[in-house]
Design goal:
By secondary structure, this protein is an alpha+beta fold. It folds into 2 domains: 233 residues, Rossmann fold, CATH 3.40.50.300; 120 residues, OB fold (Dihydrolipoamide Acetyltransferase, E2P). It is 24% helix and 35% strand. The strands form 4 sheets. It has a 6-stranded mixed sheet, sandwiched between helices. A 5-stranded antiparallel sheet has the order 13-12-11-14-20. A 5-stranded antiparallel sheet has the order 15-19-16-17-18, with no helix packed on it. The longest helix is centred in the middle third of the chain and has 18 residues. The two termini are 34 Å apart. 35% of the residues are buried.
Length: 364
């Protein structure tokens, strides 16, 4: 066993919850974040992820529960007495200050020597790729550059935990993708713990060492990006991450074999299923695991159903199609454009199939 496995967590939340009168923003929740991790709180708007982050930061006091940073209980401490620093959504920079002055602001409050403040501020601007920008004002920077200044301002304080609240929400898709790579690179370079809130799945998958999915005021599931995408345990997780079709039904067993009876005429094989006969369950299939063909499949062991094509969207490398099953349920199919088995248009009849190993069973 390594020392890392015995290390004190960078962040520990023990039963933290937040109520606003009769409204519950976050139900009692416990989790730990190991030191040096890039940890992402992912979920839909209004689900409780920003409330959770702000309870860690000290900007919101929990109704119940305790928060520890590096093993120290900070629940009763204000934000400026915690070993954390914050990067907010939007620029949140002082418009009358230069880039260097913005980065140096926290060090100035600490009354460090002027030479030390300047050296540390310039070093941090170099780290975030903004060397030479120190004399500019925030309005002279792009959105991505403003976020880099915010990050430099947080990093220069040398806290052990950096908290990022939707830091890329205001950026366009291309710039957001580039900033994801930069954030991950910087976090790995400095080795501090990042806790990042976002509702954007691609953003979360790009930067995270671990993802915690939060919705309806509770932590639904947590795991590595690979686990959350390939092997989600909860039905909600499967439906939220990726392009996924969910089928609800009842398990029927015949000896070792099991199937999910979705409705008359449609049943889904369940390989190695632990579900009991008669148990309500759901299965999920990713859009890229479906196959669409003009003719029935000749491959043995596949599940198949006739469908009607509703929409076709050409996206360059891939083509996305929405199809309707005989039950009226919709499914999303994503196929590499260069491997499309023919041309499909709205209204076409086709056959949808998928292999049993593509199915994920969800009992909760």
């Amino acid at each position: 066993m390594t020392g890392m496995e015995n290390a004190v967590p960078a962040v520990e939340a023990e039963g933290i919850a937040k109520d606003y009168g009769s409204v519950t923003a976050m139900k009692p929740t416990s989790f730990t974040i190991p030191a040096g991790r890039y940890f992402v709180l992912l979920g839909p708007s209004g689900g409780g992820k920003t409330t959770t982050l702000r309870m860690i930061a000290g900007l919101i006091r929990p109704t119940q529960g305790r928060v520890r940073i590096n093993g120290v209980d900070v629940t009763d401490r204000p934000a400026d007495r915690r070993d954390t620093s914050m990067v907010f959504q939007g620029s949140a920079l002082f418009p009358h200050m230069t880039v260097e002055q913005n980065v140096a602001y926290g060090l100035t409050l600490r009354r460090l020597p002027r030479d030390a403040i300047r050296t540390q501020s310039l070093d941090m601007l170099k780290l975030v790729g903004l060397a030479g920008y120190e004399r500019r004002r925030p309005h002279e920077l792009s959105g991505g550059q403003q976020q880099r200044v915010q990050l430099a301002r947080a990093l220069v304080l040398k806290t052990s935990v950096i908290l990022l609240d939707e830091p890329l929400a205001a950026l366009d898709a291309s710039l957001r993708r580039d900033m994801c790579f930069e954030l991950k690179h910087i976090q790995e370079s400095v080795g501090v713990t990042f806790v990042h809130v976002t509702h954007n799945q691609e953003e979360a998958m790009t930067v995270a060492d671990e993802i915690a999915l939060i919705a309806d005021g509770e932590l639904v599931e947590r795991g590595t990006p690979e686990h959350m995408y390939e092997r989600p345990e909860r039905r909600f997780s499967a439906g939220f991450i990726g392009e996924t079709t969910l089928f609800d039904g009842v398990v029927r067993r015949d000896g070792a074999a099991a199937r999910l009876m979705v409705c008359d005429g449609l049943s889904v094989p369940l390989p190695d299923s632990p579900a009991a006969d008669g148990q309500a369950a759901a299965v999920s299939v990713k859009a890229e695991d479906f196959r669409l063909s003009a003719h029935p499949s000749s491959e043995s062991g596949v599940a198949e159903t006739p469908v009607t094509v509703a929409d076709v969207f050409y996206l360059g490398f891939s083509t996305v199609m929405h199809v309707h099953l005989p039950t009226g349920q919709a499914a999303t199919v994503r196929v590499a454009t260069n491997s499309l088995p023919g041309h499909f248009a709205s209204g076409d009849r086709a056959h949808l199939s998928w292999r049993p190993e593509a199915v994920r069973l969800h009992l909760t």
